Amino acid sequence: GQNIDQPTEMTATEGAIVQINCTYQTSGFNGLFWYQQHAGEAPTFLSYNVLDGLEEKGRFSSFLSRSKGYSYLLLKELQMKDSASYLCAVRDSNYQLIWGAGTKLIIKP
Amino acid sequence: IAGITQAPTSQILAAGRRMTLRCTQDMRHNAMYWYRQDLGLGLRLIHYSNTAGTTGKGEVPDGYSVSRANTDDFPLTLASAVPSQTSVYFCASSESSNHEQFFGPGTRLTVL
Q1: Element (H, E) at B19
Q2: With contacts defined as CB-CB under 8 Å, which chain A residues touch B98?
Q3: Interatomic CA distance for residues A60 and A18, integer angstroms
Q4: Model confidence over B48-91: pLDDT tens digits?
Q5: Which of A58, A78, A104, B108 has a beta carbon 3.0–4.6 Å from A9's, enabling a disulfide?
């Protein structure tokens, strides 16, 4: 079967750095996405990885290792507005997205 | 309008009733999707359409139907609602199945 695993909840301090991990087992791999979802709102696109390595975009970076079936999202200089759920999704061999349940990130002052 | 819209925002529905959730995008995206999001679970794909005139079944299609008569609109119909269809429904679109998806604001549906 297809499976995306990520921690249910994490807590971090304002100004700090946090790493949210995602492991996956899917039928085929055509890229990995990270989305941010604030409570009661729609998911919004953060990053996309299809090759191994690190993609940096401002305070957010995303890493991929296809051989390990592993990705992480790194958030630097945390701000209170970063409190949200972070969703990991893998595009499978049918070009459909398989979604993890999301990691709820709580930022404390 | 700009982006992707959904209607209604929320709805309470009696079991057995028929309901259509509307979704419209103005980005001229070829692909559109319907997901449901339930607490503790990832987004689950109900139906999708890679281009106008075509549709496909996702992970959880039973009890739902869709149509794609044109590029902009992708309505989702529940023929006879059941309580297990209580959920938040998101419509999304993308330029193609190769691109990132953009989400509408969602419809919160409660079936009693």
Answers
A1: strand B19-25
A2: 95
A3: 10
A4: 999 999 999 999 999 999 999 999 999 999 999 999 999 999 99
A5: A104
